[in-house]
Amino acid sequence: MTGAAPLLDVRDVARRYGGVTAIANVNMTVQAGEITGVIGPNGAGKTTLFNVISGFTPPSEGQVFWKGKPIVRLSTHRIARLGIGRTFQNLRVFPNMTVFDNVSVGALGHIGFPAWRALVPGVGQSRAQAIIRKTWEALDTVGLADRAGELAANLSYGRRRYLEIARALATAPELLILDEPAAGLNDSETAELAGLIRSLNAGGATILLVEHDMALVMGVCRRVVVLAAGRKIADGSPAEVQEDATVRQAYLGASDDGA
Ligand SMILES: Nc1ncnc2c1ncn2[C@@H]1O[C@H](COP(=O)(O)OP(=O)(O)OP(=O)(O)O)[C@@H](O)[C@H]1O
């Protein structure tokens, strides 16, 4: 643990859906510059935690601080603009739009482009240029620049995962939240993804990663938080959590943990 103030600080967060407690008493921090993993058996509450952090779900209890400021109850849009970008477990690619347009949607949401601005000479133009620049940068980072003009429907499943990452990158996130980015990828694609995650991190992005692929998590994360049945049961280095008896039990006890 470093003594520096965390970039993200999740405090005593709970989220209930009627009688179902998806997560409870969850505390965790993310330090700037780190790659932090969140693992846990199916239904452990990982996606719910990500949804709370990114504003897609309000917590029933608790607070989330971004650079020391509370962010719960801010809109997803505001949270994205503060610097938290995310991908989704289920791909949200628009198949009938080009690769470029799929990504520019992310840049547009971040930079903003109210319609009236397009009518003001100079103003509209500079915004449009910023959107185009951010879009190309993001496509370049994930290696999809040469396919910018193709329909997203033409991309393989693995490349669509990269497209989703590019869209999140186009919002210029300081914290990039990746929700099961390796789902559906084969071994070589997953190894390539590990390289991309490391290079994004080397380029300055702080990363929060939910994954079932243990080799990926243990290979790229410096810290791993383990959830089981909505509670945090471990938080430490990959070696520490792998040796943790409670973690082993949680996985052994899970009928289908996918790990
Ligand atoms: N909108 C919702 N309404 C009701 N229950 C929900 C809702 N979202 C999540 N839950 C429940 O909360 C619990 C945690 O779900 P969540 O999807 O966060 O787990 P997870 O760890 O991401 O699972 P997986 O690895 O299968 O994606 C589950 O019991 C789930 O059924």
| CATH domain topology of the largest domain | Rossmann fold
| Overall mean pLDDT | 88
- The order of strands across the largest sheet is 6-7-8-3-9-10
Following the backbone from N to C, one meets helices and strands in this order, namely EEEHEEHEHHHHEHEHEEHH
Distance between the termini: 27 Å
User: Can you tell me the residue ranges where pLDDT is under 50 for at least 5 consecutive residues?
Assistant: 255-259
What tags apply to this protein structure?
single chain, about 260 residues, alpha/beta, Rossmann fold, 2 domains, six-stranded mixed beta sheet, four-stranded antiparallel beta sheet, 10 helices, disordered C terminus, binds adenosine-5'-triphosphate
